[in-house]
Amino acid sequence: MRTFGSLLVRGLIVGLFAGLLAGTFAYVMGESHIDSAIAIEEANAAAHSHDDGSTAGHSHEAEEKPLISRDGQRAGLFLATSLYGVALGGIFAVGFTLLRRRLRTSSDSYAALGLAAAGYVGIVLIPFLKYPPNPPAVGDPDTITKRTITYLLTLVIGLLAVWAGVAASRWSARFGTAPWIRLAVGGGAFLLTVVAAYLLLPAINEVPETFPATLLWKFRLASLGTQTTLWLLLGLGYAAAIDRRTAKVDSEVVAA
Fold first, then answer.
1. Which residues are listed as membrane-spanning (predicted)?
2. Confidence class of residue 104 from pLDDT cuts 50, 70 and 90?
3. How far apart are CA 53 and CA 50, in angstroms?
4. Across residues 37-48, what is the average pLDDT?
């Protein structure tokens, strides 16, 4: 039987590699869209300064450069995704340890995959559908606090929706219902929670009409792809790391 420390270390290692590969995906698929959005933002700022007159133009030129250059931001991308992956891997391992006995499967690998799928839906997919991320040049700085709070509320509600679906499905199983009925009851509870949350939470749309829709959705899909890569690799990697055959190999190595 593995100890909690062993499960935690495996989660941290898997999270590190998942974060690095997710960062690679973000770099390849998303950086060009960020550069395009920054170029639009700078062009709009220059046009605004020109319209305001020469004084505004001089003040615009006198603005300080960003504390971190774009090259530094690109390098920091891998550091950020790696640290995020490590933290998420540790949290995932803790969650797996606490919930393993409640997951109705004899396979640790299937349990890890199911937990990763539930986490992806609740933490990534549900918030994304309500409040998809925006690139630079989109968003009002005065609403950052509001947007942060509503996003976190959506994340919590996403996890509650997953829990509600599982709880409703297990509740219906007490009556000896067919599998498809349990699936329908669980799916209905999940959708009801999500739809109610979407209707109650405020709508936030700060995308300028002049911003290219194609660029906007390419950035959003790249962001979703980065999260999908991270959770997919985390689930598959952790499932492989705790597979019984892996434990058998570990025991043979220790015995040798």
1. 7-28, 75-98, 110-129, 149-168, 180-201, 221-241
2. confident
3. 5
4. 74
